[in-house]
Write a structure and sequence with these properties.
Shape: globular
Radius of gyration: 16 Å
Length: 185
Amino acid sequence: MILPIVAYGDPVLRKKGADINKNYDGLEKLIENMFETMHAAHGVGLAAPQVGKSINLFIVDTSGMDEEKGTPFKKIFINAEILEETGEEWEYEEGCLSIPHIRENVSRNSIVKIKYVDENFVAHEETFDSMAARVIQHEYDHVKGILFVDHITEFKKRLLKNKLLNISKGDIEVSYKMRFPQRGK
């Protein structure tokens, strides 16, 4: 089932996601719905807060990306914790399904070491680089209540203020289901 994606301005996007255990009610269905929702919106990552759940869960599937941007991968990250961000910082234009039609350059480290459990609650500790590291850092930020626009300059934030307000009101056209905080949907 395709879920509505929560738009910028909804308080759930600013909450730190709680860790969960394997008894979390409906986890398997939530993960399935998140993948369906992400693919329908043509995203490469989706965090639980973006579908209204304040939990430490995000998914990544870069198989739709150009292979020049790295080896495609698909993973589920539960109770993730970034252990280390290293490597050169590099700037890249990011966007977000919760903030449609806005893209800005964000600087992130090129290597990330992360520990997490998968959907079977098997523990993993892995290191990712380049585009994989970027997507993971972006989605990890979501479960910490951080949005990519928090990484841009104050000047750019001021320039985007009206666009962000319009997103929260639902005064935009999108090709996927969304829930807008100021519209009550």
